[in-house]
Each structure stands twice: as C-alpha cells, then as structure tokens.
C-alpha cells in the first residue's frame, strides 16, 4: 500500500508495511471494510494490516468504530462492504478453520452467574478444539493463576467484581496457546495492579510470538506495551503504523529547561525561532537557528540553561491532534 499523508503530517499506511514495498506477513487484514447501521456509518472503508508478531493498539474515542471493526474481523458481524482476512483465511466464510488459534475478549466476558470461576472456565475449555479433556484441568489451573484468580476460583461468578469478571474472561483467552489474541478494552474495571497484570500478559504473549490486537482508552498503557497503533475517528482510519515511527515523525525541536523562560522567549524570537513556553521549559521549533546556535544565543544573553534535549512526541499529544483534525 502506498502511504498517504494525513492532515497531521504523519503517515497513513498499512501498519508494518516494509519500506521496500514487499508484502509483510500479516495476522489480520481488512480492505475497504465498511459497516452501516441504518443511516449510521460505523466503519467507513478501512484498510488495515496487523503484522504478524506485532502488538497493535487500536485507539479512538467512543463511537469511533473500534469494536465494530473488531467484530467484523472475528466474523461476529458481517460487513456491509469490503473484505476481512484472519490468519490467512477469509472472514466470515473461512473463519472456522482459524478461530481455534484466535483468543478474543470482546465487549466484556459472559459466563454463567451461578457457576464458580473454575467451573465456568472448564466449560469454556471443553469447547476448545486444541485442548484435550486430559489437559483441561491443568490448563484451567494455569490460566487462573496467570490472571491472579486462583484464590477466588471456587467462588460463584455472580459474586465477582467487574475487575474479577474481566480477569476470568482473560483467563478463557489464555487456556490454549494462540497465534492471535484480540482484547477489547481488557483493563475495563481493573485496579492498577490488574492493569499491570494485563501489561505483563501482553508482554508474555508478544515474547512468545503471538500477535496481539488491543483496543484501549489508556494511552499510557498503549505507549508502554504496543509496537504499532491504529487511530480511528468517526469510523475512519486516520493514521496507522509503527508506534516509534509515528512518534518520531511527530517530534521535532528542542526542549530547554531554564528558570528564565520569560527572558529566553524574546531572545529566541528575535533570532527568528518559533518558541513557546511549556511549564518550566521553552520549546523551540526547527524553523530557526540550529541547536548549538540556539544554546549559544541564550548563554550570551545571560539565560541559565539547565538542560536541552530533542523534543519527543507523546502518544497522548499525537492522538489528540489526529482525532481533532479528523473531525
């Protein structure tokens, strides 16, 4: 796919597409995917690749189309137009061949309220084609331990908190090794310890070679765990690609820590630099003198310079601008 620039100046392209234009192996692919509910366009002609082995964070405000896109990718919702492919098989028609290798937690878990967590997980495991009845008890115990529910495994599900229910849903995903794991808001209802557990599990899956697609509102968690991102707004894909590349493309300029911000600004602007205050620092754009000259200007003017570093964009800043400009 040929990259096309977005309004924000970042690349909009298939996530993980190699620089030489050759096709990269993908765990999931959608082309021209569209879903319309009555007069509402939930997903509007999205093209997206999920590279094999990546951890792709799907970001977007409420109503941006994230869950609808995930449901079409898993064959839970039939698209109005376009195609979807999962582990090399078309969806929904060929989904049966690959779904045993896919673990998914979408729109919250659903279990029997009067059964215990362990009993619910055994029932879920009994439907897994890749799990034998002989291996089922050990797999259930391992999954419960992995998500921190071993101590509450024999309590009834109806007595679980929202976070515990979310953990049990994640345990069902982890019953067997998966090639692709899809998590829709996996930290919903979790406390900080639970959020750290999800981060750990995602890292373990990634280290084990699995591809992970995670939809989340927690930008800090996405920045900490994901290798790729896809940003949606109003049903459209506004940017996608490697997280590091997108952040580097959005970075630029210098951040100068100084107690003399008010003195520094006129010195820099008089030299033709675009400069503005950011807390106890001055941000200097790349449109003026080179960095060594900027520092020398300030020192000659008697401005104390405590630190100078290249500005690195944060995911929160990138996300805010992309979604604002796409409105």
Automatic annotation (TrEMBL):
Keyword field contains Nuclease: no
Keyword Nucleotide-binding (UniProt): yes
InterPro entries: AAA+_ATPase, ABC_transporter-like_ATP-bd, ABC_transporter-like_CS, P-loop_NTPase
Domain ABC transporter: 28-259
Alphabetic keyword roster: ATP-binding, Nucleotide-binding, Transport
SUPFAM superfamilies reported in the protein's UniProt record: P-loop containing nucleoside triphosphate hydrolases
SMART domains: AAA
Gene Ontology molecular-function annotations: ATP binding; ATP hydrolysis activity
Coiled coil segments of this chain: none
Family to which the UniProt record says this protein belongs: Belongs to the ABC transporter superfamily.
Record-given protein name: ABC transporter ATP-binding protein
């Amino acid at each position: 796919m040929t990259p096309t620039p977005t309004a924000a100046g970042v690349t909009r392209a298939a996530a993980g597409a190699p620089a030489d234009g050759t096709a990269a192996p993908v765990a999931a692919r959608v082309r021209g995917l569209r879903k319309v509910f009555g007069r509402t366009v939930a997903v509007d002609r999205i093209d997206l690749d999920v590279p094999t082995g990546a951890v792709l964070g799907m970001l977007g405000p409420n109503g941006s189309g994230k869950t609808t896109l995930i449901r079409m990718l898993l064959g839970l919702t039939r698209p109005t137009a376009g195609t979807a492919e999962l582990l090399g098989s078309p969806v929904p028609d060929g989904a049966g061949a690959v779904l045993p290798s896919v673990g998914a937690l979408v729109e919250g878990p659903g279990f029997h309220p009067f059964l215990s967590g362990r009993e619910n997980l055994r029932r879920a495991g009994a439907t897994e084609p890749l799990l034998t009845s002989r291996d089922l008890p050990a797999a259930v115990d391992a999954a419960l331990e992995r998500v921190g529910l071993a101590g509450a495994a024999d309590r009834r599900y109806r007595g679980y908190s929202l976070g515990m229910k979310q953990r049990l849903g994640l345990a069902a995903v982890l019953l067997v090794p998966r090639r692709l794991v899809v998590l829709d808001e996996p930290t919903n209802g979790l406390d900080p310890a639970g959020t750290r557990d999800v981060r750990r599990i995602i890292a373990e899956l990634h280290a084990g070679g699995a591809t992970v697609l995670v939809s989340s509102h927690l930008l800090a968690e996405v920045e900490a765990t994901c290798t790729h991102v896809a940003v949606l707004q109003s049903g459209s894909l506004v940017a996608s690609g490697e997280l590091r590349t997108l952040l580097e493309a959005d970075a630029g300029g210098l951040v100068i820590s100084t107690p003399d911000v008010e003195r520094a600004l006129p010195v820099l602007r008089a030299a033709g630099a675009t400069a503005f205050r950011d807390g106890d620092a001055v941000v200097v754009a790349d449109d003026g003198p080179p960095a060594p000259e900027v520092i020398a200007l300030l020192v000659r003017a008697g401005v104390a310079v405590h630190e100078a570093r290249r500005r690195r964009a944060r995911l929160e800043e990138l996300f805010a601008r992309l979604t604002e400009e796409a409105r």
